[in-house]
Amino acid sequence: MTANSPVTVWKDGDIAWVIIDNPPVNATSQAVRAGLESxxxxxxxxxxxxxxxxxxTFVAGGxxxxxxxxxxxxxxxxxxxxxxxxxxxxxxxxxxxVLGGGFEIAMGCAWxxxxxxxxxxxxxxxxxxxxxxxxxxxxxRLVGMEAAIEMACNGRMYTAEDLLPLGGVDRxxxxxxxxxxxxxxxxxxxxxxxxxxxxxxxxxxxxxxAREAIAKKAKGQQAPLLNLEALQWVxxxxxxxxxxERARHLEMRAGAESRALRYAFFAERQVARPxxxxxxxxxxxxxxxxxxxxxxxxxxxxxxxGAGLQVTLIERTHDEAEAAxxxxxxxxxxxxxxxxxxQDQYNARISAFQAVDSYAAAxxxxxxxxxxxxxxxxxxxxxxxxxxxxxxxxxxxxxTSYLDPREIFADVPNxxxxxxLHFFSPAHIMKLVxxxxxxxxxxxVLATGFALGRRLKxxxxxxxxxxxxxxxxxxxxxxxxxxxxxADGALPHQVDAAMRGFGMPMGPFELQDLTGLQIAWANRKRxxxxxxxxxxxxxxxxxxxxxxxxxxxxxxxxxxxxxxxRRPERDPEVEQMIVDYSAARGITRRDFTEDEIRDRLLAVYxxxxxxxxxxxxxxxxxxxxxxxxxxxxxxxxxxGPMHYAGQIGWENVARTMQTVAEExxxxxxxxxxxxxxxxxxxx
Length: 683
Fold this sequence. Notes:
28 helices; 48% helix; N-(1-d-carboxylethyl)-l-norvaline Dehydrogenase, domain 2; 8-stranded mixed β-sheet; 2-enoyl-CoA Hydratase, Chain A, domain 1; Rossmann fold
């Protein structure tokens, strides 16, 4: 160990204490691995080596900053093997989170003591990997195949209390150091090394069943299935299984899936710290007023209650307030019935909530969030009432999806306190909030929006003002091209299947049926007065809305729905209407392959995202990608539309987008990034 090593060893009688101190999460960097390698030699002569970590957690994973280059010596599997083979047995003291390489190190130790509620897992699957230091080979031997599958394939974390009966930990102790000292006074016979224990691989039938279940959940992601395959290697001698695991791990590190997931991991953290709030100080928020008790308002109120805030929900009438009270209590009660919160937590949240029909009841609120109809006049009336009843310094936020906040706040005094907080429904579940800046918003107010998002455990992304902000502006372009495809020859189920095949949870027409066609219809009507008359406009969706086909809630939309069944069924009436529409427009329909549909829609997504970044609506590609992942289901293992475009090559995206634009003249503007890519190809 060097003088500056994050691993230190000191001896106290018969105990050798090995301490990892590599903040913030004691990741297994090259320096930590080298320190542990040296520690195995340094502990010789002791009766027991006790491995512990400084700070709030045991080793919580690998150092992903090293993953883009060649693996550096010493390699973690070799270090873990040295610990397991050490002539001095190791006792691991686990606390906080014991993840990935941390659990692999712990499994190399002879014994494992854990603090109460310690969480343990093999989350490499979340970054497109399998464990690389024996995790898939030791975990089944230590905790059994069922738990190992949950950890490695599904990313589940187990508590120490879960693992105790499985043998994953030997004891749960409140004072780990005291327990280690007592244990060292009478060290029992060393147990069989985990790598030498017997375990059976899954039978062919069990493996097939597990694979089917995992594939269904994975929706195209390969890492969960590759983890399952690696777990089956326990049928081999340990050394052979570990060698195969390590080779597969390194291969996957260089693969597109892992690169995308690692990108998303860092992008999520990056967007939480936009340049616009650098140096700003968030205000303290304890009491939130929510105006509107519908699904969105109730969801926002529930999310705020879950963050320990006092919430006053304002409705127009006494009856509507009572209905909102019942709605919010039902949402909080649902968390209780599912075991997500305790009875005490339920009681605390309900006691911090009231639904009223008076703005005056919320006069002490630090922040008010409007969540009423997407109607400019209604929203302006709400903020007039809020401004007249709340402190002049209280922050005012609109939850608008499309409207210009500058118009909404036009008559509000002290506009520096105003911003947009665009939640996604259901707001108590969906993790995204677009924080919308206005030209007058104070940086501290903007920073308060981000601080609130963190408190609500949301991913917060900054957006400047444009129609639809980041997410809905891109969605509008995506839907527009999807409807061009219908007019030109595709059918809804073909478009949806292509996007599901890419990894989207549902296609654009299934999504419209789920959320309701009336939302986009109202927005199209709002935009009609300012829409460029040269832009191609297809009215197929308008026709459906005029026929009352508004989606699942009306029992029919792009698809038909049986009573009580949300599964979409192809509707011959809709498909014939689309064919007739094309004929009436003089369009000769043609076939589109699944690849063509996918490539066109993704090109439109990437092009619109690039324009948004170029216009300064979003700070960077990461912001666009996180909005599309957390708000619209873009598969995380693809990274996001911008990352994916970079992976396949912007020049390829540009060629596809050029074709799309040429087939619908005056309808698409190419981002500079795409035109530059085309010009670069011509040189």
